[in-house]
Design brief:
It contains seven helices and five strands, in the order E-H-H-H-E-E-E-E-H-H-H-H. It is an alpha+beta fold.
């Protein structure tokens, strides 16, 4: 007798499932075909940049499967895991109706599906092949490291930059403190110089200023000769006007 194939629910590995996903199984299968058999990290990259709606819930299911492998089965090294199986089964269909012409109605079928992803540990041959591909990709990318080592290196650089910024801030604060102290010393020296000034000298200078102001006021009181001449001219013109007026009155009074 021929050996029977392994049943779907009996496949080895750690699984995660999303039930009653509001999408058709056909659309979900189109995305699952892209990641079947890939390592976990590579599958996550593919789902991240896949511009299809089912990629978002499928990526969540993949993350849940990896978490289950680490928590339940003790498989904490994600670099050794790959997607051994992934499939989408049809779920119940929600039936709705849309009114149409002539009193008719059209059925609307809202499909659902159950998404399942199973992750397993890679065999030795497959693991060696994947490691070689990762090494070659690192060489092609200029020796840049990926994964956990790259994240740790990035965190270390960020920490060093923050420490450097903190040191610069402390230096600026110290410079500001020294400048404030220097300004205070200058102000104290000016006050000391003012204390050394003799009070009698200050009073003498104030008296001199008052005498100068009095002299200026006296100069303002002196009469201007031009103003005197203008006053005389105006007086003469007024006298002539009076004489002309008297002559006119005398002529009018004659018979």
């Amino acid at each position: 007798m021929a050996a029977t194939a392994t049943k779907t629910n009996e496949r080895p590995g750690t699984r995660a499932q999303a039930r009653y996903a509001r999408m058709s199984a056909t659309k979900a299968r189109a995305v699952l075909d892209l990641i079947r058999g890939l390592p976990v990290d590579r599958a996550d990259e593919v789902l991240q940049f896949t511009e299809r709606a089912p990629a978002v819930p499928i990526r969540k299911v993949l993350s849940s499967a990896v978490a289950n492998a680490g928590h339940n089965d003790g498989l904490t090294d994600e670099s050794t895991l790959f997607i051994s199986a992934c499939y989408a089964d049809e779920g119940p269909t929600l039936k709705r109706w849309r009114p149409r012409a002539r009193g008719r109605a059209t059925r609307i079928r809202k499909r659902t599906c159950h998404i399942t992803i199973i992750v397993s540990v890679m065999e030795a041959e497959m693991l060696a092949k994947v490691e070689a591909e990762r090494a070659s990709s690192d060489v092609r990318s200029g020796g840049r490291r990926r994964g956990r080592a790259a994240r740790e290196s990035r965190r270390a650089r960020v920490a060093r930059s923050r420490q450097a910024e903190g040191g610069d801030i402390e230096e600026t604060e110290e410079l500001e403190d020294t400048e404030e102290l220097e300004d205070a010393d200058v102000i104290d020296a000016e006050f000391d110089d003012l204390e050394d000034v003799d009070v009698e000298e200050i009073e003498a200078l104030e008296d001199d200023d008052e005498d100068d102001e009095d002299d200026v006021e006296d100069e303002d009181d002196v009469e201007d000769p031009l103003a005197e001449l203008e006053a005389e001219i105006e007086a003469e013109e007024a006298a002539e006007a009076d004489d002309d007026t008297e002559d006119e009155n005398g002529e009018e009074s004659k018979p």
